[in-house]
Q: What sequence folds into this?
């Protein structure tokens, strides 16, 4: 049995050398590329050197200057910060290692917010800078700061109380337990939640509304009482009593009731009068009862020789 | 030898007991007994599924809004402000959840809002996952609603076609897998078909004997239907057009003049009654009824578009595709006949996916319905019910942009009613050929056919109470009615 003879020519030597070189080149390039996605600290503002944001506020919200977050975590936080921005709260998040006090951090966050224009439109002053500061001691004590624009509240369901509650129950609570990522992410999500699912507080009543509310509070029940009394007084299960009413009374019951109901209803809603609403419902019910009672088909059926 | 059980088909009263016994026979009216049995069957089946039906995040939304019911006491409170949740869904399903929770000893302060952008983990952390007791209470509420709907479906079919049709309809619906699924979830779709079924029954009664009271009830039901899922509100418009059409046809002598003149105006006012009911039922709408109603429709449309974009595999491009999806869903995935066949085959060790025959049977039933409309006329309850049912089904087919399982539920109601008609005609064809004797193979059962009379329900209630449409209960016969 013969075995094939392997003969490596000089051309093959060259080809193998080129392949080996290419392999090494790709391996080196790969290592360089992986260094490109390595988790490194973000450059960002520091006290006295706030400067300009690295990217527009709409595209970059997180500055992990302390490099305490992984790339994946940063990407996730960016998504939720962008979502909060879309729901009307522009936000910048700073993560720093610093020996600042809490007061200094608050001042710094406010300076960043103003200098970078963290707001929905120039002068709106409705943005948020959220800051997590790990101190330089061995213990790496962490505290958080939220700097809101002066016109940020109320924003749908977010007012000062809700904002403080989120900072305390979500941001602080998780960060103090060493869960920095969760603290930032969850507080952003809670802000989104209150921006979507909670209503803005109602505007206070104007003087005219107050006056109308008082008038409706008296006129509504009186009209409702009159309607119920009239309905009861003329009620006949056979539905024929309406024909015995005087003409003017019939006209009032036909056209007056809808007009009065509409007027009381509109005034009640405008002046936010619960009493007016109940009166309107009673008026509507008595109007419906009157309409059913005046049923000509029923009268036809009851008339001698009518349909049976 | 006397028979222990005697069925006398065609009679309104069943005599159960010994034929020759004195005073010991139990007299039962099938028209009373069957709905009660169907209710109990449906309720039992639905409740049995409450603990095993898969959780759906949509349930959290309806449970979350249960507080709407108690917040009605504060109609100008923050709940009713213009916001995502108030724009997202009309309120009646939420009211139902609130009522159901309260009746079962729970309160209406439930879970937070489920944010569909995130997964179960975050929603659980943020408190959007309902308490199991709340979830069960919401599901049990719908189990009852589903069982009532079965009874209404029975009554609709009984009024239009007869007891056989009604029983088949009730059974098909009570055992329908999609019906059971949704009747054991805390959603609002069961309430929708309950209201649609109520409206169908009311419109049949209205046509039998027109009156303002029934017209008011019909309009209120359409308005409440709108307050459940919007689409029934729109049905009031074609009904008004139908009313005008009746009057026009009556002027030309093409329909029963008296009936058309009585019905026409009552149908014409339906949009007004429905719209007033819709607005009154939802404090959110009060400050700007038209603008905010538009908001509701707009957000529903937008959400359907977004859902179609998020799940392109269930996107529906046109009504033709929607029909195909309905056929697939109600033939292969959700079918009473398919399920029962699979269960029977499973008993003998055969594991197979069986074709459900409801759609072909419903097509036969639709033919029967068209024929009945032709026979009974455009002023009959049959015609009006067919029009309303076709409107609801048409609205769903045309409006369906994504193929979500729950969108098919109102179609199930229509299909099972039509199947009932199909059963009735087949039953009568068999009866006409003496197939009634087949019952006698059951031990202890003796069926005595009435000479010269097919198995069919007799015209009953409406003839007794002076119905102006005696044709309503006319049995389906293969010959000229």
A:
């Amino acid at each position: 049995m013969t075995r094939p003879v392997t003969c490596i020519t000089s051309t093959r030597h060259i080809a193998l050398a080129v392949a080996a070189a290419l392999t090494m080149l790709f391996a080196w390039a790969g290592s360089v590329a992986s260094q490109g996605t390595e988790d490194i600290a973000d450059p960002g503002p520091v006290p006295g050197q706030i400067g300009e944001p690295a990217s527009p506020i709409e595209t970059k919200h997180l500055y992990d200057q302390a490099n305490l977050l992984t790339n994946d975590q940063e990407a996730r936080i960016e998504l939720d910060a962008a979502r909060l921005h879309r729901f009307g709260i522009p936000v910048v998040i700073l993560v720093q290692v610093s020996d600042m006090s809490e007061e200094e951090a608050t001042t710094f966050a406010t300076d960043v917010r103003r200098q970078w224009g963290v707001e929905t439109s120039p002068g709106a002053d409705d943005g948020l800078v959220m800051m997590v500061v790990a101190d330089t001691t061995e213990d790496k004590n962490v505290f958080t700061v939220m700097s809101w624009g002066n016109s940020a509240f109320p924003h749908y369901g977010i007012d000062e109380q809700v904002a403080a509650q989120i900072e305390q129950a979500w941001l602080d609570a998780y960060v103090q337990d060493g869960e920095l990522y969760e603290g930032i992410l969850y507080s952003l999500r809670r802000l989104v939640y209150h921006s979507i699912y909670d209503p803005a507080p109602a505007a206070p009543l104007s003087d005219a509304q107050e006056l109308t509310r008082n008038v409706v509070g008296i006129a509504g029940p009186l009209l409702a009482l009159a309607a119920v009394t009239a309905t009861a007084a003329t009620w006949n299960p056979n539905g024929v009593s309406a024909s015995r009413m005087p003409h003017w009374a019939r006209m009032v019951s036909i056209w007056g009731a809808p007009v009065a109901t509409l007027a009381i209803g509109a005034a009640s809603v405008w002046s936010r009068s619960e009493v007016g609403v109940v009166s309107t419902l009673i008026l509507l019910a008595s109007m419906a009862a009157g309409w059913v009672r005046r049923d000509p088909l029923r009268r036809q059926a009851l008339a001698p020789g009518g349909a049976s | 030898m006397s028979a222990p059980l005697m069925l006398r088909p065609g009679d309104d009263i069943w005599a159960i007991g010994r034929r020759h016994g004195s005073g010991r026979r139990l007299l039962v009216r099938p028209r009373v007994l069957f709905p009660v049995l169907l209710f109990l069957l449906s309720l039992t089946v639905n409740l049995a599924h409450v603990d095993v039906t898969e959780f759906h995040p949509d349930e959290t939304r309806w449970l979350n809004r249960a507080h709407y019911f108690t917040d009605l006491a504060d109609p100008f409170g923050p709940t009713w402000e213009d916001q995502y949740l108030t724009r997202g869904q009309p309120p009646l399903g939420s009211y139902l959840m609130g009522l159901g929770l309260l009746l079962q000893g729970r309160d209406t302060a439930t879970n937070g809002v489920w944010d569909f952008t995130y997964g179960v983990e975050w929603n659980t952390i943020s408190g959007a996952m309902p308490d199991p007791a709340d979830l069960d209470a919401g599901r049990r509420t719908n189990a009852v609603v589903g069982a009532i709907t079965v009874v209404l479906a029975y009554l609709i079919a009984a009024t239009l076609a007869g007891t056989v049709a009604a029983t088949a309809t009730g059974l098909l619906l009570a055992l329908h897998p999609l019906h059971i699924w949704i009747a054991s979830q805390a959603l609002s779709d069961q309430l929708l078909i309950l209201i649609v079924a109520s409206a169908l029954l009311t419109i049949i009664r209205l046509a039998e004997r027109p009156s303002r009271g029934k017209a008011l009830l019909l309009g209120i039901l359409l308005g409440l239907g709108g307050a459940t899922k919007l689409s029934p509100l729109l049905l009031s418009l074609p009904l008004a057009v139908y009313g005008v059409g009746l009057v026009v046809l009556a002027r030309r002598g093409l329909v029963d003049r008296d009936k058309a003149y009585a019905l026409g105006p009552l149908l014409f006012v339906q949009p007004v009654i429905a719209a007033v009911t819709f607005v009154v039922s939802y404090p959110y709408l009060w400050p700007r009824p038209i603008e905010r109603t538009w908001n509701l429709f707009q957000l529903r449309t937008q959400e359907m578009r977004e859902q179609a974009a998020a799940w392109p595999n269930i996107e529906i491009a046109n009504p033709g595709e929607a029909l195909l999806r309905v056929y697939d869903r109600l033939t292969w995935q959700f079918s009473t006949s398919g399920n029962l066949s699979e269960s029977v085959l499973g008993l003998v060790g055969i594991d197979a996916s069986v074709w459900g025959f409801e759609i072909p049977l419903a097509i036969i039933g639709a033919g029967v319905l068209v024929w009945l409309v032709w026979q009974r006329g455009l002023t009959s309850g049959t015609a009006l019910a067919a029009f309303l049912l076709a409107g609801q089904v048409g609205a769903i087919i045309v409006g369906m942009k994504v193929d979500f399982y729950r969108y098919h539920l109102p179609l199930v109601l229509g299909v099972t009613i039509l199947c009932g008609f199909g059963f009735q005609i087949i039953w009568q064809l068999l009866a006409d050929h003496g197939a009634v004797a087949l019952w006698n193979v059951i031990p202890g059962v003796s069926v005595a056919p009435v000479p010269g009379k097919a198995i069919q329900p007799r015209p009953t209630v409406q003839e007794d109470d002076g119905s102006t449409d005696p044709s309503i209960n006319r049995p389906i016969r293969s010959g000229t009615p």
About this structure: The interface with chain B takes residues 83, 156, 186, 189-190, 192-193, 196-202, 269-270, 272, 274, 277, 281, 284, 288, 291-292, 294-295, 297-298, 307-308 of chain A (CB under 8 Å). Residues 1-7, 32-36 of chain A have pLDDT under 50 and may be disordered.
